[in-house]
C-alpha cells in the first residue's frame, strides 16, 4: 500500500504498453520537455497579403490569353442551345443557266421551280453561288434536289449526287465540305458550320439519271444559322 507498486500487472495502463510496429512507423517523436522558466513557442504564420492579388492577376492573364478558346466555347454553346434561324442571301448567280431556270429559282422559297445549267449531261463543275450582305454564322443547309419535290416531276431531270460546298468568310478564308445526296424528292438537311460567312458556292460533283437531253436540277437551297 505504501510502495505504490501495481499488484495486477495485466491491468497496467495502455500508455505504458509498447505500441504495435505499424503504429510506431508513423509516430511522431515525443515533444522535447521544457526547462524551468521556458514557455512554448507560439507558431504563427504570416497572413497571405499578396496571395489574393497574385491569384487575380494569374486568372486575368489566363482569361486574356485564352480569350479565343472562350469565344469558341461560347459560340459552340450557342449553336447547341439555340435553334438556327433562316438566313436569306441577297445576290445569286450560277456558272451558267438554262432559259427559264435561273440561279434565283433555287433560292426563291418554292420547290416547283429549279436552277439548271445551260447544257445537258453530267454538269460536273457547274455551280450555284449566293452572297450575304452581312457576315453570318452558318449552321445548316437544306437542299431540295431535282426539278420538283413531286416524284413524277422529280425524275424528269437529272439530280446531283454530290455537291461541294465552299464557304468564303469576310476575311477571304475558304473552307469546303463535300455533301452526298440521296436520290429522292424532298428536303435533305446537312450540317455545314461556318463563321463570318459572306458567300456560299455549291459545285456539282456527280449526278443521278444523267442523259444528254436532261439537265442537273436543284429546286431549292435554304440556309440556317445566326446573324
From TrEMBL:
The keyword Thylakoid does not apply. InterPro entries: FA58C (IPR000421), Galactose-bd-like_sf (IPR008979), NADase_transloc (IPR057561). Keywords: Membrane, Transmembrane, Transmembrane helix. SUPFAM superfamilies: Galactose-binding domain-like. Residues 93-206 form the F5/8 type C domain. It comes from the Bacteria. Coiled coil: none annotated. Gene3D superfamilies: Galactose-binding domain-like. The chain crosses the membrane at residues 50-66. This is F5/8 type C domain-containing protein.
